[in-house]
Amino acid sequence: MEGWRQLSHNLLVAPQTSMKNMEKELLCPVCQEMYKQPLVLPCTHNVCQACAREVLGQQGYIGHGGDPSSEPTSPASTPSTRSPRLSRRTLPKPDRLDRLLKSGFGTYPGRKRGALHPQTIIFPCPACQGDVELGERGLSGLFRNLTLERVVERYRQSVSVGGAILCQVCKPPPLEATKGCTECRATFCNECFKLFHPWGTQKAQHEPTLPTLSFRPKGLMCPDHKEEVTHYCKTCQRLVCQLCRVRRTHSGHKITPVLSAYQALKDKLTKSLAYILGNQDTVQTQICELEETIRHTEVSGQQAKEEVSQLVRGLGAVLEEKRASLLQAIEECQQERLSRLSAQIHEHQSLLDGSGLVGYAQEVLKETDQPCFVQAAKQLHNRIARATEALQTFRPAASSSFRHCQLDVGREMKLLTELNFLRVPEAPVIDTQRTFAYDQIFLCWRLPPHSPPAWHYTVEFRRTDVPAQPGPARWQRREEVRGTSALLENPDTGSVYVLRVRGCNKAGYGEYSEDVHLHTPPAPVLHFFLDGRWGASRERLAISKDQRAVRSIPGLPLLLAAERLLTGCHLSVDVVLGDVAVTQGRSYWACAVDPASYLVKVGVGLESKLQESFQGAPDVISPRYDPDSGHDSGAEDATVEALPPFAFLTIGMGKILLGSGASSNAGLTGRDGPAASCTVPLPPRLGICLDYERGRVSFLDAVSFRGLLECPLDCSGPVCPAFCFIGGGAVQLQEPVGTKPERKVTIGGFAKLD
After folding, report:
1. Which Gene3D superfamilies match (predicted)?
2. Is residue 475 located within the same domain as residue 496?
3. Residues 561, 477: one domain?
């Protein structure tokens, strides 16, 4: 109790001690001076009434500045004594002014005559930089913030802003005012107050107040009806009077007395302020942390500048080196061409009359000694012939063009133009079509098209079906995953995992992907292959090379049977088994059935019963074939309590047939009536869960793990997976996520390796 009293005392004392530190809270965002008759905008910010009128005038609204009579008539507010703050008001931004003018405002003030819709006045709030709708009445529909006015007045008195307030009716020199009158809207000294409020008159009933330069009404008045506000509308978050309360505008709104709103808001504000004052150490710690962050930001920013400068200088050095090498290549090519052209010029100069080769030839022709002439002229003739050929086929020895030295820098310029800071990778998108859980969890993802590249990824996962521990959720991580897929080994069976992934590059880690939830199988996954050595008709069943898929191909026997359908002929059942038999524990496997299959049965059965049924395969062509031969479930030779040796789920034409009970799908040829059965859509994958000890088989949707059917099963011997076909159909076993196991064959209770 004593602590609460101390806290209440602090709440009362704190405003007095911090009065001098809150000046920035009392400045108008337009004129940057203390508020004078502040108005509350719909965005909850405040602005001086005079400033608001001037802003609206600049926007082209004339006559919407509120009631002129609300302007105080005290000497402090007259034009002759008003401060020159209007000349320093900040003008609205040009883009906002253009946007308002394009909307049609400012061309004609007020409502147009004959207009269907009244003009809505838009006020650009200088605090939040947003456009606020003032409605049709403009500033006349806003409340004055009397509380803020009182705070400004107390602040002025505490810091003695503007000096003493003088009496407004005294003869010069005026005395210091000691009282004020709200009704007279003036300040008085003691003598003048008595003079202007004589005893026995109506003015004597005026209540004196403290001297002030801004006279306020006694209470808030409704701007629409000039009535005192008495209620608060929670829906509109606005004070209303009695007339507003009964008007259609507030019909159906939550309206409470202003006393209740006052008490509730005061309690909230008091509690919030008490919390802040009670956690001053935390505030100071956070301030220190922010200051330390500022220092780190300055250091990191300087380091980033140096790194960028160093990298750009490196690029400049590479470009300078490349420039030098290219210029050297051009220089060498130029010198080589000049030397060849100079040699060609020298040869041609020797052909001029009286110089070089021509002069020498003329002198040789003067030789009269025939043997000597022949000896000297033979070599000279070859040179003259070459010179003659050069004159006839003249071409410069080198080209003057350097087009082969042109550079294509378009790609490089584009790269330099697009040079920018490396961004972190965007949140990856998990591929839900390729992500699944089987014997292991396979997670696949991709980056958005315009995402920066990722060097590696971090995969996080956790179980959601474990008891929650105090504190944040603990994730398991796989760091530095290369590629866009990951394999999570040895997940717990029958659990729900939530997974997420994020990328990383030199800029840091990006955002996490959306969480994806995966159900793991309810039991350990059984790996097996299809075995076509028992009961599979090679004419009608085709097993793939990897022995994980089988297709039923209807041939001539099916056509012949179709001819005899009206004569009582029945189709045979082609069965293929798995090469593994289960003798204990719980096992799970999944497969996909082609939706176009005519009739497929997926399930399990006793190995001995399945082999017996294969040994006496019926003839489909014979009209004497008896479908009720006792080989469907063995139920005729057993007691009522005996468990069925088979448990199958019937699929056909993209539907699953669900019987009224487990026994409806217990045989190969069940004959339930249509009234006792229903169908459900075929899921992409079917799951089969065998509980050998309990003697139960569950069929599930392998995608959502929703249960479809649960059947009893005779587990007195080895139980094999089995697939039955009537007509065309196909089944594909689900591939194991991890390494394929060794092929084990267990038939007749003995296991061996292929």
Report:
1. 1.20.5.170, 2.60.120.920, 4.10.830.40, Classic Zinc Finger, Immunoglobulins, Zinc/RING finger domain, C3HC4 (zinc finger)
2. yes
3. no
Please check whether residues 459 and 568 belong to one and the same domain. Answer: no
Cα distance between residue 66 and residue 68, in whole Å = 6
Distance in angstroms (rounded) separating the CA atoms of residues 66 and 138:
7
CA torsion through residues 392, 398, 404, 406, sign = negative
456 belongs to a structural domain: yes
The domain of 535 spans 530-615+644-660+677-733
Report pLDDT for 665: 40
Rounded to the nearest 10 degrees, what angle do helices 370-392 and 280-349 cross at? 140
| pLDDT, tens digit, 9 for 90 and up, residues 438-482 | 989 999 999 999 899 999 999 999 998 777 666 667 899 999 999
Q: How far apart are CA 697 and CA 63, in angstroms?
A: 84
Task: Indicate whether 52 and 127 sit together in one domain.
Answer: yes
129: amino acid identity, one letter: Q
CATH number reported for the structural domain that contains residue 715 in this entry: 2.60.120.920
pLDDT score, position 372: 82
3-state secondary structure 446-458: ECCCCCCCCCEEE
Q: pLDDT at position 160, please?
A: 58
Q: Smallest Cα–Cα separation from 530: which of 551, 510, 549, 503? A: 549
Percentage of the residues of the chain whose pLDDT score is greater than 70: 74
Cross-sheet strand order for the sheet of 238-240? 238-240, 231-233, 255-257
- State the Cα angle at 684 between 703 and 647, rounded to 5°: 85
User: Both 557 and 689 in a single domain?
Assistant: yes
Q: Per residue in 275-316, pLDDT tens? A: 888 889 998 999 999 999 999 999 999 999 999 999 999 999
Nearest to 38 by CA among 137, 120, 153, 158: 153
- Residue type at position 731: V
Q: Is the pLDDT of residue 687 over 90?
A: yes
Residue with tokens 């060794």: 742
CB 540 within 8 A of CB 550: no
DSSP state of 121: E
Query: Inter-axis angle of helices 370-392 and 356-365, to 10 degrees?
Result: 150
Per-residue three-class SS string for 311-367 = HHHHHHHHHHHHHHHHHHHHHHHHHHHHHHHHHHHHHHHCCCCCCHHHHHHHHHHCC
Residue 209 lies in a domain: no
**pLDDT value of residue 260:** 86
On the question of pLDDT at 99 being above 60, the answer is no
* pLDDT band with cut points at 50, 70 and 90 for residue 33: confident
Kindly tell me if the per-residue pLDDT of 557 is higher than 60: no
- One domain, residues 283 and 389: yes
What pTM does this model have?
Answer: 0.53
- Between the alpha carbon of residue 139 and those of residues 74, 134, 144, 689, the distances in Å are 22, 7, 10, 74
Residues present in the chain in total: 754
